[in-house]
Amino acid sequence: MSQYPIKPELQVQGQLSDNERLKAESNHLRGTITTDLKNEITGGFTGDNFLLVRFHGMYQQDDRDLRAERAEQKLEPLHNVMLRARMPGGIIKPEQWLAIDEFAREHTMYGSIRLTTRQTFQFHGVFKPDIKPMHQMLNKIGIDSIATAGDVNRNVLCTSNPVESELHQQAYEWAAKISEHLLPKTRAYAEIWLGEEKVETTETEPVLGDTYLPRKFKTTVVIPPHNDVDVHANDLNFVAIAENGQLVGFNVLVGGGLAMTHGDKATYPRRAEDLGFIGLEHVLKVAEHVVTVQRDYGDRVNRKNAKTKYTIDRIGVDAFKAEVEQRVGVAFGPSRPYEFTHRGDRFGWVEGIDGKHHLTLFIENGRLLDYPGKPLKTGVAEIAKVHKGDFRMTANQNLIIAGVAAEDKAQIELLARSHGLLDNSSTQRKNSMACVSLPTCPLAMAEAERYLPTLVTHVEGILSKHGIAEDHIILRVVGCPNGCGRAMLAEAGLVGRGPGKYNLYLGGNTAGTRIPKLYLDNVAEAEILAALDSLIGRWSFERNPGECFGDFVIRVGVVAEVKVSKTDFHA
Ligand code: SRM
Ligand code: SF4
User: Where, in this chain's numbering, is siroheme bound (predicted)?
Assistant: First the structure.
């Protein structure tokens, strides 16, 4: 039941999806998780708990490489969970890092820390007996995993490089406040994982609602001209508007999202669009009511069309905006001018305007592990032992060692270099990204993380062959059309169709403001590389000065521009 008058004509009527039942019956996300935790017969969670643990930041998984062997031995899949932490703006302190480093080493199947495309980390392969101790360890160091998955507002992103120190600090504080404001109010997490007493209260969820949101919801705070968080992948974005280096308010963009389903034309990636400018005093109320409008009008019948992007396309952006304005009690002002110019992280050292130094490390695929001759994970831990600032995870799966005093730079750099954290990867490699995919992701159709390094080597070869080895294209690979590595904002995006087969999409741009379009359907590597070879060859001698690959392929008519996703993407 909403606390606001509802317009039934704007709602989707019909049989609610089963996820709505399970949320309603979950006793505010408790289910019977506690009982399941004690069940030693299976390593997994049963019934509704399988999905409910997601609201607590965990996904039940099993290693897909081991499935057949386990089945042959008549064993159940090797159930474990993946944990995703809540880390608004991706900031983590060295002492927190050392604790997660130890947990990953001692208590996870893969021993890695995986930096994600949403500025946080994941542990993969945590077995049931270690789940509760893991949450208690995290709680001890001031980290939780509340609402990093499930039908809620997820980890709130914030432009990561703190080079414009004061503005960044202000933006970061808003990201943290928005994250807190939109958290579920249920005490289920504290009771189940931290063993806190159940207090007899009548719990309600005034913002998210007692059946939570129709679908996942994603929010960013971004400081132009860097669009490092890829705003168009997100439901709600606060674009920082500054005057004389001071934050004065935000332009609000809503309705971005990248997922689709192969063969279902009612699903498509979509850019976020502008609602207008708001002053700082309205930020939390606007965040709250973009959420409550999506809560009340999002599609709870068909989950494939449940995200904000579809709500806006169904009811119209004007109706959506009017509803938000009415609930907040304020009108959006005209959008203030701003421009996004780029997305990639700024690798190497930069000096902030406060005189502190920040070192951005390229972490291929965000996977921190000790590789032969490249002990990356140990390297970051060694840095954490001496570092006096903090670490910042970027939305491109990289890591910034932030807030280094001039006199400490040499020591940090030496540690980074001696552990392989500062190699001379090409610009192309540093601007390529893949989602996790196999072996842990249950939805993967093709390889992504494990394939990317080889694919990049081929693309490096193509660039060299055409005499432009120093140039790059924004290249992204995802194992399925959910698009976690944001291929649907790449200049060249590969989307998994089946083992070794991908769709190739072309035409995103460097600023991340355009959705690419299908160029090749369900093809293998040879065909993809042949196409890239020919197109990169043309780009190398036909491009206008400064013209990026994505702009080029549209200008010369290789693919049509996607202006309005609903009509253009599948056309
Ligand atoms: Fe994602 C589901 C990994 C960012 C869209 N995503 C999954 C799951 C949990 C698979 C599952 O449901 O069982 C993947 C776990 C793989 C594993 O083994 O770790 C997974 N998503 C990831 C991460 C780790 C990819 C990475 O390589 O970094 C990212 C974690 C983000 C985080 O820290 O919160 C991740 N996922 C994204 C993004 C990119 C972004 O948000 O910037 C998207 C596209 C943007 C969007 O939401 O439109 C994305 N993930 C999805 C979807 C499709 C949602 C939809 O609208 O239909 C799913 C499937 C679902 O929700 O049903 C999904
Ligand atoms: Fe898994 Fe697909 Fe997301 Fe890749 S894009 S992590 S394969 S859900």
Answer: 484
| Helix, coil or strand: residue 32 | coil
Which ligand ends up closest to the CA of 59?
A: 1
Distance CA 178, CA 32 (A): 30
pTM flag (> 0.90): yes
Q: How far, in Å, from the CA of 480 to the mean position of ligand 2?
A: 5
17 inside domain: no
My answer on whether 404 and 283 are in the same domain is no
Q: How many CB atoms lie within 10 A of CB 202?
A: 4
Catalytic, 484? Answer yes
> Helix or strand or coil: residue 288?
helix
* Token reading at 363: 């972490």
Alpha carbons within 13 angstroms on the beta-carbon side of residue 341 total 4
d(CA 217, CA 291): 8
| pLDDT mean by block of 10 residues, the chain; 571 residues | 92 98 97 96 96 98 97 97 98 98 98 98 98 98 98 97 86 97 97 84 90 98 97 98 95 98 98 98 98 98 98 98 98 98 94 93 98 97 98 98 97 98 96 98 98 98 98 98 98 98 98 98 98 98 98 98 98 95
> Structural domain tally of the chain?
3
